[in-house]
Design a protein that fits this description.
It is a single chain. The chain has 95 residues and is an alpha+beta fold. The protein has one domain: Glutaredoxin. It is built from three helices and four strands; from the N terminus they run βαβαββα. Strands 2-1-3-4 form a four-stranded mixed beta sheet, with helices on both faces. The chain is globular and about 35 Å long. The termini are far apart.
């Protein structure tokens, strides 16, 4: 009988931006592709719907967070995001 290995919970990637932002549109395509490849969950949040997010991020959108840790802003590096979403790398999210 095989030993059961604990399942890693799915990674959540949060894209913080706003409608009509060209950088957000570019980031969305990169983030969506990398989430698809890694089987990660993509959650999009608009700063227009949350005053706290607006105050915090209005001048740095798009912002990408992986499991609650900010990993990129303004321009998203797809290669870097792919590496962060690989199994085993998820717990070591450092700039």
């Amino acid at each position: 009988m095989r030993a059961r290995t604990p399942r890693t919970p799915p990674t959540q990637v949060r894209l913080i931006g706003k409608p009509g932002c060209h950088l957000c549109d570019e980031a969305r395509s990169v983030v969506a592709e990398e989430c698809r490849r890694a089987g990660a969950e993509l959650v999009e949040v608009s700063i227009l719907d949350d005053p706290d997010l607006h105050a915090r991020y209005w001048d740095t959108i798009p912002v990408v967070q992986v499991d609650g840790v900010t990993v990129d802003h303004l321009r998203v590096d797809g290669t870097r995001l792919r590496a962060l979403l690989r199994p085993g790398r998820r717990r070591r999210l450092l700039w």
